[in-house]
Amino acid sequence: MALTGLGLVVYVVFHMLGNLQLFEGPHALNSYAAFLRDMPILLWAARIGLLSMAGLHIGLALQLSIRNYRARPLEYTIHRYRQASIASRTMAISGMALLLFVGFHLLHLTAGVIDPAFADRRDLEGYRDVYGKVVHAFQNPFMVTLYLAGQLGLGLHLSHAIASSVQTMGFEHAALNRLLKSLGPVIGVIVVLGNVAIILAVFLGLVR
Ligand code: HEM
């Protein structure tokens, strides 16, 4: 779980960095999207890798939850958490929210099923108009709400997941523990802020 989780984190960070090119205008984002699509073998290798990592991650999470439940089928009468953060206690919920969000996101921006108006549109240079698609999406308050909710799930999940993976893989050192523990929340906040900046910049009319 730790390894597949970290692989997915790397994707989410690079995806956010790539999407920030929206702030450079249509040419930057559309030519970047075309660059990624122009290498079908690499694109499909990355997609299959991503899908396998996500599948393994979810499968192992389910297996772990079942083992956890079987180890103590009776609920504790009193729950008193000493150290567990909200993020760590809600991993299953934030994970499921994230899965729902990604499913919706793929149908929306990748497959163009949810809002087909912009699915195959081209810009003036003949590139697929990914910029137009994103701007069109976040001018809609319903989409803005859904995507912001997705970022909440993402932020919560990342803030516990990264520190937990690092610990699972045995990276622990008395002098570095505080730094390693803050890695998750810091990366989580950076990714969420990057994504929220995109959503709100369009919604507030700063990017059109
Ligand atoms: C504001 C936030 C986000 C924006 C603006 C955004 C934008 C996009 C766009 C425009 C595409 C389609 C690219 C194309 O048609 O060439 C895409 C695909 C995708 N996004 Fe996002 N995304 C966001 C957040 C996320 C998050 C949080 C995740 C994962 C947790 C994610 C996962 C994916 C995946 C898996 C694909 C499919 C990539 C492929 O075509 O193989 N996205 N995103």
**CATH architectural type:** Up-down Bundle
Major sheet summary line: none
- Secondary-structure element series: HHHHHHHH
Q: Radius of gyration, rounded?
A: 19 Å
Question: What ligand molecules are bound, each kind once?
Answer: protoporphyrin IX containing FE
**Which parts are unreliable, with pLDDT below 50 for 5 consecutive residues or more?**
none
How many E-type strands?
A: 0
Please state the average pLDDT score. Answer: 91
How many individual domains? 1
Quickly count the helices. Answer: 8
The structure class reads mainly alpha
Distance between the termini: 40 Å
Large-scale geometry: elongated
* Helix percentage range: over 70%
Strand content bin: under 5%
Provide a quick synopsis of the model.
With 208 residues, the protein is mostly helical.
What does this structure look like?
With 208 residues, the protein is an all-alpha fold. 72% of the residues lie in helices and 0% in strands. The N and C termini lie far apart (40 Å). It binds protoporphyrin IX containing FE. Residues 12, 15, 19, 33, 37, 47, 50, 98, 102, 105-106, 109-110, 130, 133-134, 147, 154, 195, 198-199 line the site of protoporphyrin IX containing FE.
